Amino acid sequence: MSLNTPRFTKRNESFVCKNCGFEVPQSSSTCRDHCPKCLYSLHVDENPGDRLAECGGILKPIGYESHPKKNYMILYVCEKCGEKRTTRFLEIDKIMPDSFDNLLKLTPKF
User: Where are the domains of the chain?
Assistant: First the structure.
């Protein structure tokens, strides 16, 4: 990665979840990169929003952890390449918050 490459590219787009087929709306608070219903995501970024990852696999939520500034983080593993990732759980969103019930079904990692 070049020193001039941004670590975060703002990309707040709606999309259809590849796992459950839900039409995912944009977020009101940040850039949404996962389904608020089933919490699955796609391995499309090297850094958030850059769309530079060649893998394209499905990121399966496998756990969650507490974060001092971001509340909860969802832990993922790519079903195609095995890479592990994290993303912020959107507990508060005016358009559609993430499913807290589905977060609690995951294994906590503290």
Answer: 15-108
User: What are the beta bridge partners of residue 26?
Assistant: none
Within the chain, strands assigned E span 15-16, 23-24, 41-42, 58-67, 71-78, 84-88, 107-108
Residue 32 predicted with pLDDT over 90: no
Cα–Cα nearest to 27, from 104, 76, 97? 97
Span 32-52, mean pLDDT? 90
| pLDDT confidence tier of residue 14, bands split at 50, 70 and 90 | confident
List helix spans (H) across the chain.
100-104
